[in-house]
Automatic annotation (TrEMBL):
<keyword id="KW-0378">Hydrolase</keyword>
<protein>
    <submittedName>
        <fullName>Arylsulfatase family member J</fullName>
    </submittedName>
</protein>
<dbReference type="InterPro" id="IPR024607">
    <property type="entry name" value="Sulfatase_CS"/>
</dbReference>
<keyword id="KW-0106">Calcium</keyword>
<dbReference type="InterPro" id="IPR000917">
    <property type="entry name" value="Sulfatase_N"/>
</dbReference>
<dbReference type="GO" id="GO:0046872">
    <property type="term" value="F:metal ion binding"/>
</dbReference>
<feature type="compositionally biased region" description="Basic residues">
    <location>
        <begin position="559"/>
        <end position="589"/>
    </location>
</feature>
<feature type="compositionally biased region" description="Basic and acidic residues">
    <location>
        <begin position="545"/>
        <end position="558"/>
    </location>
</feature>
<dbReference type="Pfam" id="PF00884">
    <property type="entry name" value="Sulfatase"/>
</dbReference>
<comment type="similarity">
    <text>Belongs to the sulfatase family.</text>
</comment>
<dbReference type="GO" id="GO:0008484">
    <property type="term" value="F:sulfuric ester hydrolase activity"/>
</dbReference>
<dbReference type="InterPro" id="IPR047115">
    <property type="entry name" value="ARSB"/>
</dbReference>
<feature type="domain" description="Sulfatase N-terminal">
    <location>
        <begin position="66"/>
        <end position="378"/>
    </location>
</feature>
<dbReference type="InterPro" id="IPR017850">
    <property type="entry name" value="Alkaline_phosphatase_core_sf"/>
</dbReference>
<keyword id="KW-0325">Glycoprotein</keyword>
<keyword id="KW-0479">Metal-binding</keyword>
<feature type="region of interest" description="Disordered">
    <location>
        <begin position="521"/>
        <end position="589"/>
    </location>
</feature>
Length: 589
């Protein structure tokens, strides 16, 4: 299957679809982990007006383009879902995943901006210039404007596109805003984090501002002290209530939870008083609220007639941060690292359109794959000149077929702190192992440079009131080590380094890294711009880059003069061409 292929998935027959829906509806009266039935459960995490009966309205004409609901959680750890053994209750996520397809070999990036950029473009970081860190609030930087985005492609085929939640792809120019990148509407935050109630964010002392937007303007009218998870859910319900379900919709819900600061409404602490570690307790309450919010989103999809023809995708944007309450056990490492704990994510697909419902997909899937997969499902076209790094994996997920993906470039970051003992010699003359990089090819994973915090953090590490690293498992590497090799299929917890035992495999993966690096674009990571200070923008974080009006006027006048000159030249050239052709014809007899 070619990268970014356009294969159209085969859809279930109408009879099977109806049977699947009826089977799903027959389960609605079940009690699940203390939650009431789908049709009657209503919580504070975004209550819909009226009684949610979980009933579909009368079906209209057949709709081939599915409604696409992409839910992106923030900093949810790999273990932090009920079906991965967590002590935190997530009945909604557990139910949706159990009735859908669990993605158990699913990868994202280790931080916020990289994952979001790859989701929305289908490209690795090295191909957008965002391969280092995240976009900071004060940086004149954003997702490059020459990249076509997922919502733009969906709009081309008739989708209504809406985003609710966290953007974090830059905003220094108006052209970088979500509404300029393909979304019909946007309600949410531009930055990477902020207060859940006041929606204020301080990047550094004295550099603080308000960060809640509706489309292109600060949403002061919504500053009612509502917890963001609940507020975003209410917005989603309003969008669904006002849209015509016979027309396709793409709804991108990027919740702020469970990213720090660790805040949650008091009622969600009820089941977690026994957790002594205060960060873990707060984190658990936040996740409980998020789970309830997703329940209410699902109820709204059913109530307003979307569910039967919908595809719900759930994903975390990176691994959890143990110091902020997240757990990736039994995986190694944390958010911000290229160990499995930083990049292997909770993910599943829930849809009546799936063929193999209630299954587990262990095939390799990466966050870049959603771009071509969703465009194909939407009956869109992928331009030949778009060099994608993602693959269409719908048949892999829905039918259990083999994944077209055999490798993942986790990243190459040429400006991250270099490993002191790294060298070209350590990389067999193929690669400088001082550079931070990570790649997966089939079963093998290679890391070079400084891969980041590498502890295993077991559940008992959260047993005390404060942060406790005595329970963590550590490995003391020999001095000078800058290359690691693991067989991830056999050793998903990265406990046995095989780099010394398989030097030929190391060389092969280093060559693959080198090949990828030849296609990389320059890193975009500009210094801070003092004009970004919200004090200069009415106390709001927002676009600050404005060209000087005089410069604009002079450029306009120059442009007008150029146009006049070019027109005159064209006229003269036409006359010259006419007379030349006339003469040549005469000369030719």
């Amino acid at each position: 299957m070619a990268r970014g292929g356009r294969r159209r998935p085969r859809r279930p027959s109408p009879g099977r679809m109806v049977a699947a829906v009826l089977a799903g509806l027959s389960l609605l009266s079940l009690l699940t982990c203390g939650y009431l039935a789908w049709g009657s459960r209503r919580g504070d995490a975004g209550e819909a007006p009226g009684n949610l009966l979980g009933e579909e309205p009368a079906a209209g004409a057949p709709r081939s383009q599915p409604h696409i609901i992409f839910i992106l959680a923030d900093d949810q750890g790999f273990r932090d879902v009920g079906y991965h053994g967590s002590e935190i209750r997530t009945p909604t996520l557990d139910k949706l995943a159990a009735e859908g397809v669990k993605l158990e070999n699913y990868y994202v990036q280790p931080m916020c901006t990289p994952s979001r950029s790859q989701l929305i473009t289908g490209k690795y970081q090295i191909h957008t210039g965002l391969q280092h860190s995240i976009i900071r609030p004060t940086q004149p930087n954003c997702l490059p404007l020459d990249n076509v985005t997922l919502p733009q492609k969906l709009k081309e085929v008739g989708y209504s596109t809406h985003m609710v939640g966290k953007w974090h792809l830059g905003f220094y120019r108006r052209e970088c805003m979500p509404t300029q990148r393909g979304f019909d509407s946007f309600f949410g935050s531009l930055l990477g984090s902020g207060d859940y109630y006041t929606h204020f964010k301080c990047d550094s002392p004295g550099i603080c501002g308000y960060d809640l937007y509706e489309n292109d303007n600060a949403a002061w009218d919504h500053d009612n002290g509502i917890y963001s998870t609940q507020m975003y859910t209410q917005k989603v319900q309003q969008i669904l209530a006002s849209h015509n379900p016979r027309k396709p919709i793409f709804l991108y819900i990027a919740y702020q939870a469970v990213h720090s600061p660790l805040q949650a409404p008091g009622r969600y602490f009820e089941h977690y008083r026994s957790i002594n570690n205060v960060n873990r307790r707060r984190y658990a309450a936040m996740l409980a609220c998020l789970d309830e919010a997703i329940n209410n989103v699902t109820l709204a999809l059913r109530k307003y007639g979307y569910y039967e023809n919908s595809i719900i995708i759930y994903s975390s944007d990176n691994g959890g941060q143990p110091m902020a309450g997240g757990s990736n056990w039994p995986l190694r490492g944390s958010k911000g690292t290229y160990w499995e704990g930083g990049i292997r994510a909770v993910g599943f697909v829930h849809s009546p359109l799936l063929k193999n419902k209630g299954s587990v997909c262990r095939e390799l899937v990466h966050i870049t794959d959603w771009f071509p997969t969703l465009i194909t499902l939407a009956e869109g076209q992928i331009d030949e000149d778009i060099q994608l790094d993602g693959y269409d994996v719908w048949e892999t997920i829905s039918e259990g077929r083999r994944s077209p993906r055999v490798d993942i470039l986790h990243n190459i970051d040429p400006i991250y702190t270099k490993a002191k003992n790294g060298s070209w010699a350590a990389g067999y003359g193929i690669w400088n192992t001082a550079i931070q990089s990570a790649i997966r090819v089939n079963h093998w994973k290679l890391l070079t440079g400084n891969p980041g915090y590498s502890d295993w953090v077991p559940p008992q590490a959260f047993s005390n009131a404060g942060p406790n690293r005595w329970h963590n498992e550590r490995v003391s590497w020999s001095a000078g080590k800058t290359v690691w090799l693991f067989n991830i299929t056999a050793d998903p917890y990265e406990r046995v380094d095989l780099s010394a035992r398989h030097p030929e495999v190391v060389k092969q993966l280093l060559r693959r890294l080198s090949q990828f690096n030849k296609t990389a674009v320059p890193v975009r990571y500009p210094p801070k711009d003092p004009r970004s200070n919200p004090k200069l923008n009415g106390g709001v974080w927002g676009p600050w880059f404005k060209e000087d009006e005089k410069k604009k006027k002079s450029e306009k006048s120059k442009g007008a003069n150029k146009q006049k000159k070019s027109k005159n030249k064209k006229k003269a050239n036409r006359r010259k061409g006419q007379s030349f052709h006339c003469r040549s014809r005469l000369a030719g007899g």
